[in-house]
Amino acid sequence: MLYYHPNTLFAHNRKPQMGTSTSSTLSLLSIILFLSLSWAASVSDSIHGAFLQCLSTHSQSSHPISAALYTPDNSSYSSVLETYIRNLRFNTSTTPKPRLIITAAHESHIQAAIICSKKHGLQMKIRSGGHDYEGVSYVSEVPFFILDMFNLRSISVDIEDETAWVQAGATLGEIYYRIAEKSKTHGFPAGVCPTVGAGGHFSGGGYGNMMRKYGLSVDNIVDAELVDVNGQILNRKSMGEDLFWAITGGGGASYGVIVSYKIRLVKVPETVTVFRVARTLEQNATDIVYQWQQVADKVDDGLFIRLTMDVVNGSRSGEKTVRATFLSLFLGSLDTLLNIMDANLPELGLQTSDCTEMSWAESVLFWTNFATGTPVETLLDRNPQVLTHLKRKSDYLKKPIPKAGLEGIWKKMIELQTPAMTFNPYGGRMAEISPSATPFPHRAGNLCKIQYATNWDEDGSEAAERYINLTRQLYSYMTPFVSKSPREAFLNYRDLDLGINHNGKNSYLEGRVYGIKYFKKNFDRLVYIKTKVDPGNFFRNEQSIPTLPY
Q1: Burial of 326 (0-12, 13-18, 19+ CB in 10 A)
Q2: CA 251, CA 264: separation in Å to the nearest integer?
Q3: From 176, 467, 475, 493, the catalytic residue
Q4: Is the pTM above the cut of 0.85?
Q5: In the predicted model, is pLDDT for residue 24 greater than 60?
Q6: Angstrom distances, CA of residue 323 to CA of 276, 403, 410
Q7: 70 in helix, strand or coil?
Q8: Buried b (16+ CB within 10 A) or exposed e, 120-145
Q9: Is 493 a catalytic residue?
Q10: How far is it, in rounded angstroms, from Cα 396 to Cα 400?
Q11: Prior bond to 419 cis, omega within 30?
Q12: For residues 367 and 194, what is the distance between their CA atoms, to the nearest angstrom?
């Protein structure tokens, strides 16, 4: 291709005649723009072609990578891309799209992706289940491709050893089903949404309704397989304890590509008890919520009572009220649960008719709002019940909010209407584990974790900005009641409002802004390990762990 420098186009020009200046300049600019765009497109096509050739070169004949590649001109490209987009904010015509999707079906595909991405400078995004709240695993503002892990979903359960190897693309529902298939008295402490992918969930901490009894997912991981920046497949022994520590709560995508985790199963009773009870302000919700704060982190560690507050229609026409919903899992019998509730939260007035006994696997479906009696095989369904536009934020509550504070919160929520809040109680095992045992630092001293949740159905950037702003307003209003210096946050509740890393010369300073909120004092160790294992910052995203600046 010919390349014309602007100066050569003017080299022999005399002073233009009056009247022709504007048109000549516009024509010239048009030529320059056309040539520049053509050159850029040519370079882009060249890089893309070279990247594909590189992948082919590094493909194993026994596991050819060609069948795993989806380019935009492939008829299945859109469906492959959209199947694991779990936030409709990032499924629009203006959302940046990947140049390529690699649906890895073998470890060698991951190795080839890393080697060729490094060689040709194309950003790699790693997607396990697509539940990243900010779309970080499948969206980028720079040219990129997606390494999609959904085909790597094998689960091998060893009941005698009470462990299981789980590949990153497996969903939590699949894991729970395969455990229940082998044993009625084993489970695993992880999330309550069955369609979440294991890779991102585990590497960011992973919490669920058994965390007061058994801690987080990462507190029950004993080994892992990872492909590092050099394309080597490492396990816990070969990667070393530092790197293993980092990928059990520090976000695996900053350090490599997680292939699988070895998890330690936990004991559950054959029968557990669940309930879901709602109370509005007119039904004494303020007093019940206040008392919940006094006991939720202190009761029997087999009892987890999640509290969700949202705005609903009041008893009077045209009026709004706040509804408090108490959703619980108890690792025991109904009678024992009623005794505990009568002693600790009598204000709720829990009745036998509010509770249901079932298996632990069935309780996962109950928590996901499936009807009682839904077949356990439903856990194998990878399709979410609902797809919507959403925004999430997080906070940590250190001490109870006084009743006057709660009443102010109700007033603010009714003003904003759409955002909801969920309080997830801590205590129990969570308070016993050292804040430095894993990168996840939010242990003793936390009453609960707060999630701010806003969902909407309207398309478009204006609607998104409006609802996101409502979420930010509620978050701002909560400032006096939550953790300070830093205002803590949970990595798996990804929130780009906390800061974005542009991965340039200020990467460390930008990373520290959100890193301290997610990891507190553990951030410095994560940076040290990152600098050691990935000094070139190949594994990077908008909120990855940065390298040291020196």
Answers
A1: buried
A2: 20
A3: 493
A4: yes
A5: no
A6: 12, 16, 9
A7: strand
A8: bebbbbbbbbbbbbbbbbbbbeeebb
A9: yes
A10: 11
A11: no
A12: 10
